[in-house]
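User: Please predict the structure of the protein below. I'd like the answer in structure-token form so I can feed it into my own downstream comparison script.

Assistant: Understood. Taking the following sequence of 388 residues as input:
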Amino acid sequence: MPWKKAGVMEQRIEFLLRASRGDEPLGELCTAFGVHRSTGHRWLKRFAAVGSVLELKEGSRRPQTIPRQTEHAIEERVLALREQYGWGARKIQVLLEREGTRLGSATVHRILQRAGAVRVAAPTRSQGKRFEREFPNELWQTDFKGIQEIWSKRYGPVCPLSALDDHSRFLTGLFGIASNDAVRTYYALRRAFDECGLPGAMLMDHGIPWWNHANGYGLTQFSVELMKQGIRLYFGRPCHPQTQGKVERMHRSLEEALRRADEKKRFPGWPAFLQAFREEYNYVRPHEALNMQVPASRYQPSQRCWNPNPPAWDYGPGVWIAALNSQGSLLFEGKRYFVCHALAREEVAVEVLANRLLVQYRRTWLREIDLTTGRSVPILNGQHLSQL
């Protein structure tokens, strides 16, 4: 069970708990978690020194440091594809090959250059290799796309909600809802779940309707409902959209398509536009990160379906289960400690580690409570997907 197979913070908590019980030799425990003995010793020493699992989060890894003339008909086809999709030479080359025309991407680029159809892009910083899940539906990236005010005035207000499969880049959902409130978001995502099944995990930002900044801890009733379906939730670092880089890049393509439709006076209305874009993105547009294949070639629906009556969570044998009160607080040795308003009357698992209580809801570690000071702090705030 190496760190990379699940949340780093979660694995370190599990490691510390098992090590503290003293039932297993440290060497065997390190082998079970897929880490070197020195790594296990390091986390035990760090916890002994700081006395808090919150100090075990992953540190930053940021470094300190004239060709042959092409036939006229082919040139016309290259420019027609450019006009239709607005894509670059490599993607147009793939479309030509699908039609039976073999042409190098450099030749396609020269055709576009001669026609003045190539925009000079502003230089951008090089980015490191992004994570990618191994199988479809392991993780969906979910986000809302802000629409420029001029387009909202021209075509009506809309708040597009996107759900993108991390492995295949397949758009599992693209919905033009009126606002990002919990009710509209719920029914939109239910349509995605009905079509594509349930993902194992979802990545979102700290915005409505997933996160509540006013309740002392971020979970909302909506995010709790997702967790009850066995979906693990991850939240990107605040003010760091790169964590959701795949869906952010898709939104850039969506904005480019909207701009072309606006310039050509061919905007069909939000529902038709978003549906057409999703079909094109999934089944037509070659994706460079997929070796110029389309997302649909790497995607298949999940076999898990939405359960309107999810069963109680099985935390396993020997785990202390406690029910929170109507305020989302935990009673321990005659004292009450706050956990989460959105989990009022829900059952949680509680582990004792030194002078701390660690509170878990289903698959997610929620809270660390200092029994000496009574201070209760969230764990999930520091457990972002960038640490996986």
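That's the full token string. The chain has three domains: 3-62+312-387, 72-114, 140-298.
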